[in-house]
Write a structure and sequence with these properties.
single chain; mainly beta; 5-stranded mixed β-sheet; 25 strands; 40% strand
Length: 403
Amino acid sequence: MAMSTSGSLSISMALVMFLAAFGLKGAAEIIPVQGQNLVTDNVSVVEGETATISCRVKNNDDSVIQLLNPNRQTIYFRDMRPLKDSRFQLVNFSDNELRVSLSNVSLSDEGRYVCQLYTDPPQEAYADITVLVPPGSPIIESREEVVSEGNETELSCMAMGSKPPASITWMKGDQELQGESTVEETYDRMYTVTSRLTLTVSKEDDGVPVICVINHPAVKDLMAQKYLEVQYKPEVKIIVGYPDGLTREGENLELTCKAIGKPQPHRINWLKVDDDVPSHAVITGSDLFIENLNKSYNGTYRCVASNLVGDSFDDYILYVYDSRAGVGSPQKIDHAVIGGVVAVVVFIMLCLLIILGRYFARHKGTYFTHEAKGADDAADADTAIINAEGGHSNSDTKKEYYI
């Protein structure tokens, strides 16, 4: 049964007087003690677990230590427990410490506990017990189960029944996202937190987990996740099955249209841009086959794939070459070899020019034309020509010939 405040104080004083009357330790007379220091610590404890309160004294002179609850009822007086609550147990008692444990803590145990030392004047220290209540398993929901690429969707995550309120963050793959949170206090001093996340999805988000992470001092690694399901338009690609190289007259053409989407494309069509597909072309599902090509088939062939989200296409440009195109074409010229040959030829020509130049420099002389040979003794030009042709020889003139 709980005692009143005045009752607990009376019992405390009576015990002190009783001890003094029998000459036991801890007389009723309060003697001032210099340098005494009473300390304790605040305690945070998860609901249902055990809290420990420690009242510690330095330089104690055998003064009495007691522990009171938030209602100032005596829990322990020295090593005696007047309060009839078996959840309180003595852990340690000495002249310098009174340590008490409280098991199976509940919200009603929260409050300020008093460590009291009977000195003159009495000393008190306060230990606040804070009870933490972890939230229940988070609940994550989405506005739509399936969303199309480019559209916006909303997810919500709820953490219920916690104390203090939880905080919520979001992760999409390795990317951290921030939602908008609201906090609601319930009738039993608990809190419910709801976070909403809005995002625009792309086809790359299909199958990516979105994780709701709960942050609370009473619990770790509490989370929930939901995988995004995104529908997207087909991805289309035309693959040439035949020929492997130039498309020549008289040969065949085989094209295959590959289309992937979510949902899987339900329709694939072949068409020719700005013209009709040749009448003898064979279309089988995603395959287009044209035999005996000729240049009238030139143009752009398009594969169009469709699903519930939309349409996509890919183009193939056909150009038909002559039947002999690319056959027997000259081999590629090695330009490096040609450059080397040209360099050698230029070098040889330079050497020849140098040699000839040196030769000319060594064989200098006097050179005359036929007209010049008779010009010295002639009165006019005609006479000079006659003299040159007529054989007037000048035996004194040295003849040199240029080779």
